[in-house]
Hints:
By secondary structure, this protein is an alpha+beta fold. It has four helices and six strands; from the N terminus they run E-E-H-E-H-E-H-H-E-E.
Amino acid sequence: MGxxxxxxxxxxxxxxxxxxxxxxxxxxxxxSDGVGAMTALAHLLGQSTDHSGMxxxxxxxxxxxxxxVVIVGDYDDSDIYRxxxxxxxSESEYTNISEKLVAHLKNDSFYNEVLSERRLFTSSMTEEVxxx
Length: 132
């Protein structure tokens, strides 16, 4: 099967799950896609005094600047992946903020079009989200 990856912020105990962006979890699957988890990461790390062209949202843009952020696999000895992916989510120290970022990206017509053509999943991971 291979190793699966998520993007985790160990400072804020938040993470991005590639399935929520319609992407695979393998290392080669989600970083190469032009719209998805890495785009969301760019918004979380984005910084500029001129917010034009950034889809600026004070609750998202730049919120991970200065934090410890890793792309971590389930084979890693740190247990970050296991802690973030613990089910049920109420027992996890980490919060999955992927749906919040998908909603943010869909405010842009281009991102909305791309994401609307994908199979996105809800927090239950068993039910598809209607993206239109």
